[in-house]
Design goal:
Blueprint (H helix, E strand, L loop, with lengths): L5 H20 L6 H27 L4 H6 L1 H43 L5 H11 L15 H7 L15 E3 L4 H9 L5 E3 L8 H4 L2 H7 L12 E2 L8 H5 L3 H4 L9 E5 L3 H8 L19 E5 L16 E7 L2 E6 L11 E5 L4 E4 L5 E6 L5 E7 L2
Parallel strand pairs: 1-2
Antiparallel strand pairs: 2-9, 3-4, 4-5, 5-11, 6-9, 6-11, 7-8, 7-10
The protein binds 2-oxoglutaric acid.
């Protein structure tokens, strides 16, 4: 009978199995059929090993001695390594598939939401912040950093030769169209409200009365509190009379809003008209913008995102406008300043010029304006 060396002969096929597995540890990944072949050879080797162990037991050889044989140890080591590699490989492949899946779903979602486009990104941003753009006739206010971020760069021809804000009168719509309406050149027209009654009629008390039964409709519309604590028109029209009329010792205030109420719009428009100098083809937009407040206050420097240029009529008080060219034109263009007096109308593309305002009169400033196309 053979001694302890005899099992070597039985293990010989296992050497072949071991060498057949070699490629598994190399850089090339095994094919499916390779793996199936290796697995069945391993099963066969394990079966034979069990036979050997049983026969060794009968011959009085301890199982530990059989396992200490080099070839048996290699076979067992191989089996353990195979198990480890198999598990690690499966886990790695699983993780890679998961990461790939997450990446694909994220990319699909981004495409679906059009996050790569300015429009889609803005829509997603607004939804995220629960702001609904088209709920009302008015639009909502984007934070300044987003407005500036999405603003398309300007061709500096809009400001290159502009060294002052012209004050003009008796201008025909044709000349206004050619020189100012869409060129980006700001202008003040001094004789544009001679047949309006707004200058005499509009006041803090007039707006308070007009909005008495209408302020709820304004809640979804644009309201700029500027440096005040007011959250809406209701709060504005309920401030103390002393503060409203800027008595000594009261806190200054300045606010702006766009009118969203058709009935109020009809009342307002009894007192003003489309400015005579607008080009014949230009439409005066439906939404009125009203700004009102006291000396020393105004709007901080910003640029708008309202599509169209605007006009603004200074009904009462005096307001200084400080205009800055867009940053890409700083080296080509100048900053401008103009004080708009009562009875004057400023026409300005607030989407192109950065602008800041400051009330410079003791009298309350009241303006009304709109966009034109
Ligand atoms: O009239 C004002 O004080 C500010 C106006 C303004 O910022 C605008 O029309 O965009």
């Amino acid at each position: 009978m053979t001694g302890p060396t005899s099992p070597r002969g039985h293990l010989a096929p296992a050497h072949r199995v071991a060498s057949a597995r070699k490629p598994l540890t190399s850089a090339t990944a095994p094919s499916k059929s390779d793996r199936r072949g290796v697995q069945s050879a391993m099963d066969e080797a394990a079966r034979r090993l069990r036979d050997i162990a049983a026969r060794a037991d009968k011959l009085g050889v301890r199982a530990a001695d059989v396992a200490s044989l080099r070839s048996a140890g290699r076979l067992l080591g191989l089996a353990r390594r195979e198990g480890r590699e198999g598990r690690a490989g499966r886990a790695g492949r699983g993780l890679a598939a998961l990461a790939g899946g997450v990446l694909c779903v994220t990319a699909l979602l981004a495409c679906q939401l059009e996050l790569h486009s300015r429009r889609g990104f803005s829509r997603a941003w607004l939804t995220w912040h629960r702001l609904r753009l088209h709920d009302h006739m008015c639009t909502i206010d984007l934070p300044d950093y987003l407005v500036s971020f999405f603003r398309p760069p300007e061709a500096c021809s809009m400001c290159r030769d502009v060294s002052q804000v012209d004050k003009i009168s008796n201008i025909s719509p044709q000349v206004f169209e050619k020189e100012y309406a869409y060129t980006g050149r700001p202008v003040v027209v001094t004789d544009a409200m001679s047949n309006w009654t707004a200058q005499q009629v509009f006041s803090f008390q007039f707006f308070k009365d007009v909005y008495k039964d209408h302020w709820q409709k304004q809640l979804g519309c644009q309201f700029f509190p500027y440096r005040t604590e007011f959250r809406n028109l209701y709060e504005v029209f309920n401030m103390s009379i002393e503060r409203a009329f800027m008595h000594d010792g009261t806190k200054p205030w300045y606010i702006g809003w766009s009118n969203c109420d058709d009935q109020v719009a009809r009342i307002l428009r009894r007192h003003y008209d489309r400015p005579y100098f607008l080009p014949d083809t230009a439409e005066n937009k439906k939404v009125d913008w009203i700004f009102m407040g006291s000396r020393g206050y105004g709007a901080q420097m910003h640029v708008d995102s309202v599509d169209l240029p605007s006009w603004q009529a200074q009904l009462k008080g005096r307001k200084k406008w400080i205009l800055e060219p867009p940053p890409e034109c700083y080296y080509d263009c100048q900053c401008l300043e103009v004080v708009v007096e009562p009875g004057e109308i400023i026409a300005l593309d607030t989407n192109r010029w950065y602008h800041q305002t400051l009330i410079v009169s003791e009298e309350m400033s009241i303006t009304i304006g709109a966009e034109y196309d």
